[in-house]
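To assess whether ligand presence alters the predicted conformation, the chain was also submitted together with 2-phosphoglycolic acid. Input:
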Amino acid sequence: MSRPRALIAGNWKMNGRLAEATALAAAVAAGARAGGPELLVCPPFPMLAAVKGVLGAAPVSLGAQDCHAKPAGAHTGDVSAEMLGDVGCRYVIVGHSERRADHGEGDAAVRAKAEAGMRAGLVPIVCVGETLAERDAGAALAIVAAQLAGSIPAAATAATLVVAYEPVWAIGTGRTPTAAQVAEIHAKIRADLVARFADGPAFRVLYGGSVKAANAAELLSVANVDGALVGGAALKADEFLAIAAAAPKGN
Ligand code: PGA
């Protein structure tokens, strides 16, 4: 079966002031080539509109790092998925482990955010992944399966939702799972998607956690890895573009 077109997503987290964000976006846009994997940048909220302007017509999508579940209302400090659509977002990351940890977001909250993204016409990137303690306890597969079951809305399709597997212990640590460990989890995610959704084979399942140019080819060639969610290495345009260049050719 042919693979879905790969998605290489940059999660800039809470990094970069406006000048850096626009410069980074300009460099990514300048290096983006049609025909390769889909490129996505996810800047902090205040930079979204400016980055959208810099991206212009370049083949680079815009995404946000979170959204509120509701479309509007008395939720000081929050941002709705509809607002993100207004400023040009096509994607929204939900359930990142840093939000699960920093903001106490559980699977039900993540699912509500994913539903909000879909309601607004955005594609949510739903993150799942085990901690080191959970892996050491032999619970990685069960944890990921439970997060997947609880975080992905019933109405999801391969065209409207992306999954990202990000082992918490690999995020920002320089440690990556072995190809065999990635393959094991991604096979489980695929099996669960196939069991639950008619178009389960076509969902894109990204790997995230210390992806860099030097390990991208190996990680991206693992079965059922359809792209990468990149943190630190996405803050350097040449490194991010090199990761994209390492993606296997799609269909
Ligand atoms: P990292 O972050 O690439 O810096 O490990 C990945 C992520 O948190 O999405």
